[in-house]
Amino acid sequence: MQLYPGQADEYQRRHAAIWPELRTALLDAGIVEYRIFHDANDDALFAVLYCQQPARLAELPSLPVMQQWWAYMADIMVTQPDLAPVQHALHSMFVLSLGEVAPCAS
Predict the structure, then answer these.
(1) Which of 15, 38, 88, 91 is catalytic?
(2) 3-state secondary structure the chain
(3) β-pairing, 44-51 with 102-103?
């Protein structure tokens, strides 16, 4: 994902106050860990999700709370026409895992 320049602090502030309804939706989708990293050199964001039910993630974009969150975030990051964040798939180059949880996508 990609932030607009100078929006890292605002992005972090908004996520520190994530809406309870959105948190519940993410957990209900089976997410057990969600981390977002920021590259200050180019304002790129990199997200890592671990979940118990990867198929349930496909339901998230249709939820009203997710669409409201996307609209809330659209002024500080690059988005699609439907306000979903522009995302680019990354290819896994190395994994070391105990096998306790699986990444939601590779």
Answers:
(1) 15
(2) CEECCCCHHHHHHHHHCCCHHHHHHHHHCCEEEEEEEEECCCCEEEEEEEECCHHHHHHHHHCHHHHHHHHHHCCCECECCCCCECCCCCCCCCCCCCCCCEECCC
(3) antiparallel
pLDDT (tens digit, 9 = 90+) per residue, 22-56?
999 999 999 999 999 999 999 999 998 889 988 88
pLDDT category of residue 97 using cuts at 50, 70 and 90: confident
| The predicted structure's pLDDT at residue 72 | 98
Please state, in angstroms and rounded to a whole number, the distance separating the CA atoms of residues 59 and 66: 10
User: If 0-12 CB within 10 Å is exposed, 13-18 middle and 19+ buried, where does residue 75 land?
Assistant: exposed
Active site residue 38: no
Predicted TM-score (pTM) of this structure: 0.85
